[in-house]
Structures are given as structure tokens and as C-alpha cells.
């Protein structure tokens, strides 16, 4: 892990296209600004972990689980009843 000491107003670069800047230090709470291309996804750590866990759970579903879910969501069409009279 790289540890960098920065003061408010100072920043650092990650690669050629991401700038991280310290905006303010207020009683131990640091505000950080990140400039990055729109196609870069930036998540808070706890949000990313929740997404990762949900993806892991979804990938553990078996084919039978999907079939069962599909059967619950898609009901077969009702057959037309014939009265037997002409």
C-alpha cells in the first residue's frame, strides 16, 4: 500500500487520467475530490462490497433455481375449452 500525506488543496494522480485532490480536513473527516473519465466506475468501499456480495449470490443460483423462478413468473396460457356442441 502506498501512503501519501497531503494537505487540503493538494492532490495526486493515478495513471494519466485520474486526479485525487484533498478538499478539506474538518475534525478528522477528510473530503476528497476525484476527477476521472466518465467511463471509470468509482464506488465507496462499502457499496462495492455489497455489489460484489450480491453478484456472488446471484452466480450461485443453479439451473433448477432459474427454472423454478421462470415457472413462477410465466404462467402457461389457458387452453380454450370446447363445449362439444355444434
Automatic annotation (TrEMBL):
Source organism of the structure = Desulfohalobium retbaense (strain ATCC 49708 / DSM 5692 / JCM 16813 / HR100)
Q: What is this protein called?
A: Translational regulator CsrA
GO annotation, biological process: bacterial-type flagellum organization; mRNA catabolic process; negative regulation of translational initiation; regulation of bacterial-type flagellum assembly; regulation of carbohydrate metabolic process
- Which gene is annotated as encoding this protein in its UniProt record? csrA
**Family listed:** Belongs to the CsrA/RsmA family.
Task: Quote a single Gene Ontology cellular component term.
Answer: cytosol
Q: List the subcellular locations.
A: Cytoplasm
Q: Fetch the InterPro entries from UniProt.
A: CsrA, CsrA_sf
Its function? A translational regulator that binds mRNA to regulate translation initiation and/or mRNA stability. Usually binds in the 5'-UTR at or near the Shine-Dalgarno sequence preventing ribosome-binding, thus repressing translation. Its main target seems to be the major flagellin gene, while its function is anatagonized by FliW.
Is the Metal-binding keyword given for this protein?
no
MF term (GO), any: mRNA 5'-UTR binding
Q: What Pfam families does the database record attribute to this sequence?
A: CsrA
User: What are the leading ranks of the lineage?
Assistant: Bacteria, Pseudomonadati, Thermodesulfobacteriota, Desulfovibrionia, Desulfovibrionales
What is the annotated quaternary arrangement, including any partners?
Homodimer; the beta-strands of each monomer intercalate to form a hydrophobic core, while the alpha-helices form wings that extend away from the core.
Primary site of residence: cytoplasm
Q: Which UniProt keywords apply?
A: Bacterial flagellum biogenesis, Cytoplasm, Repressor, RNA-binding, Translation regulation
Amino acid at each position: 500500500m502506498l501512503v501519501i500525506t497531503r494537505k487540503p488543496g493538494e492532490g495526486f494522480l493515478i495513471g494519466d487520467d485520474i486526479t485525487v485532490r484533498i478538499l478539506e480536513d474538518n475534525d478528522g473527516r477528510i473530503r476528497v475530490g476525484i476527477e476521472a473519465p466518465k467511463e471509470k466506475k468509482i464506488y465507496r468501499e462499502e457499496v462495492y462490497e455489497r455489489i460484489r456480495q450480491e453478484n456472488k449470490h446471484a452466480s450461485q443460483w443453479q439451473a433448477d433455481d432459474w427454472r423454478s423462478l421462470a415457472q413462477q413468473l410465466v404462467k402457461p396460457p389457458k387452453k380454450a375449452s370446447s363445449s362439444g356442441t355444434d
